[in-house]
Design a protein that fits this description.
By secondary structure, the chain is of the alpha+beta class. It has helices at 12-161, 166-300, 308-330, 336-339, 360-366, 368-371, 409-415, 425-432, and strands spanning 345-346, 355-356, 381-388, 392-393, 420-421, 438-447, 450-463, 466-476. It folds into 2 domains: 72-262, Methyl-accepting chemotaxis protein (Helix Hairpins), CATH 1.10.287.950; 307-476, Beta-Lactamase (2-Layer Sandwich), CATH 3.30.450. The longest helix is centred in the N-terminal third of the chain and has 150 residues, at 12-161. The radius of gyration is 61 Å and the shape is rod-shaped.
Length: 478
């Protein structure tokens, strides 16, 4: 039996076209990868701008609230200033009336002091007069004694004259009686003058003290008079100052009203811009997701790209982790419920907050031997870690699993990234994706305002067919 063998001929043109197609697809994949990175960078910048706008919006809301409060306070001050001006106006009128009364009182006091001084002077003159009367009284008393002596001599002479001297005797007796009465009267006058002099002396001492006091009162009333005259002028100055405050407060209130209106308009414009940026972010998120999907499709077509080695490595690692997790559940080293638990218990005093789950100690034991070697896969690799569907990263690489420092959240954020929940866009997508692999681009904040563009390659982890999360491999996009 003869068999006829027909040889297959390969068309050189088809091979060339296939090779060219692969080159084109590779070029497209690379370009799409670069486009994804560029879009991710732009997305990061737009996100920063959006965050800044949101912050500015919140700041403007705070400013607007403060301006409203200041405006209310300004109106309250304006009301108080109006009241103060009215009160000052009323006080001016009362002070003016009181000043007139006080001025009249001061004048009356001054007049009374002058009168009291005049009385003192008259009392002094009266003392002089009493001294003169006393002197005259003593002279009268002397004359009375001499007259009494003369009348005695006349009586003797009349007695000698006998009957011829009887008439003269009568005259002499009357003169003696008059002299005796004069002596008694002058004695009484002298006694009265003595009492009057004593009382007048006391009165003069009191009057002198009163005059000295009155002199002090005069000096004080003179000062009070000038102060009384200054009161209306001072109140007028106060009224003028209050009127200036009132005018300024009116201007401030009007200015605050303008600021409030402008702030409200600016806040509304920023909110509208923020909303537009939010829509832009959503659109750009869709674009970057589509670009990442295209990159994945190109890789799944078997076309070699710069990411192919990383894809193979992360898929192999995800398969290894899935196997170990599955066998651990089957062997009873950890229960299914514990491994899939979503009970997150905060670690006290951790900043940023770290949390524990029933499976954290398990992953701390099994994952480091699998994750640490990936750091040596390429000098571009930054980290390799498994996360669950909530973005919880229980066990990180050793260099990112340092003990937290007290009161140093910035250092902790960079060096203590284990036991943290990363529920950002990239983290959640990596944990929830069930595709053979997911390639994402994002901008990583390195602190101090420095950022680097990263690629995040993830592959899903399944435990006995049930999706647990994914393994993330992050490497530099440069």
């Amino acid at each position: 039996m003869n068999m006829k063998v027909t040889s297959l001929k390969v068309d050189p043109d088809a091979e060339e076209q296939s090779a060219q197609r692969d080159v084109v697809i590779t070029d497209i994949a690379n370009r799409i990868g670069k486009l994804s990175i560029s879009i991710a960078k732009i997305l990061g910048d737009v996100t920063d701008t959006s965050n800044q706008l949101n912050s500015q919006t919140n700041g403007l809301h705070g400013i607007a609230s403060a301006v409203v409060e200041m405006e209310q306070q300004s109106k309250s001050v304006l009301s108080s200033a109006n009241d103060a001006v009215q009160i000052t106006h009323d006080a001016e009128e009362r002070v003016s009336q009181t000043s007139t009364r006080l001025r009249n009182i001061v004048n009356d006091v001054t007049s009374l002091i002058d009168t009291f001084t005049l009385v003192f002077e008259q009392l002094s003159e009266l003392g002089v007069t009493l001294k003169q009367v006393s002197h005259i009284s003593r002279e009268v008393d002397s004359i009375s004694r001499k007259t009494n002596l003369l009348s005695l001599n006349a009586a003797i002479e009349a007695a000698r004259a006998g009957s011829h001297g009887r008439g003269f005797m009568v005259v002499a007796q009357e003169v003696k009686n008059l002299s005796d009465m004069t002596g008694v009267a002058t004695g009484e006058i002298e006694e009265t003058i003595g009492r009057l002099s004593s009382e007048l002396s006391q009165l003069l001492e009191t009057a002198q003290s009163a005059v000295q006091t009155a002199g002090g009162i005069r000096e004080q009333t003179n000062g009070i008079g000038s102060e009384i005259d200054a009161l209306p002028e001072t109140l007028a100055q106060v009224s003028g100052a209050q009127q200036s405050i009132l005018t300024s407060t009116n201007e401030i209130t009007a200015a605050l009203g303008d600021v409030r209106s402008n702030t409200a308009s600016l806040s509304e414009e920023i909110e509208q811009s923020s909303e537009r940026l939010g829509s832009t972010l959503s659109i750009m998120g869709d674009i970057i997701e589509n670009a990442e999907a295209l990159t994945g499709m190109a890789s799944r077509l078997g076309v070699e790209t710069i990411d192919t080695p990383y894809i193979h490595a992360v898929q192999a690692l995800a398969q290894e982790v899935s196997t170990i997790f599955s066998k651990s559940v089957e062997a009873g080293r950890i229960s299914r419920d514990a491994l899939f638990s979503r009970d997150y218990t905060p670690i006290p005093n951790s900043a940023p907050e770290q949390v524990m789950t029933p499976f954290t100690e398990f992953t701390d034991y099994v994952l480091p031997p699998l994750q640490e070697p990936m750091l040596r896969f390429s000098d571009k690799v930054v980290f390799c870690a498994a996360i669950n569907v909530d973005g919880y990263l229980p066990t990180h690489n050793d260099k990112f699993s340092q003990p937290q420092r007290h009161n140093d959240p910035d250092w902790n954020a960079s060096h203590c990234r284990n036991r943290r929940i990363f529920n950002d866009r990239v983290g959640l997508a990596a944990g929830r994706s069930t595709r053979p692999f997911l390639l994402q681009a994002y901008r990583r904040d390195m602190g101090n305002g420095e950022t680097v563009m990263m690629k995040d390659l993830s592959a899903p982890i399944f435990v006995n067919g049930e999706h647990w999360g994914g393994i993330r491999l992050a490497y530099s996009a440069d």
